[in-house]
Amino acid sequence: MDKPVKLPTGARHGTSVAYNKHKCRCPKCRRFNREYNAAYRANNPEAFRRQKRNVLAHRRAMTRLRERMPDLYTEFYEEELQRQ
Ligand SMILES: [Zn+2]
Questions:
Q1: Interval between CA 50 and ligand 1 midpoint (Å)
Q2: Residue 84 banded pLDDT, cuts 50, 70, 90
Q3: What pTM value is reported for the model?
Q4: Rounded-to-integer distance, Cα 21 and Cα 5, Å
């Protein structure tokens, strides 16, 4: 399990700020994210299906790109990696 990241004064673990902004993955923050996503899914089934479809479409597109234009894929993928 990941250790809690050090948060600035006023920010608490188990909140959206800690999980998303500070990228904390301690048990408290992961629990927050899990419950947040579960609530989102329950309240927006259509949006969740759409999101899932988009993720799958992106994955398929990347696979096709890798197969058909490996040079472009490498270029694109390296950009993606640098942004993280
Ligand atoms: Zn945390």
A1: 29
A2: low
A3: 0.58
A4: 11
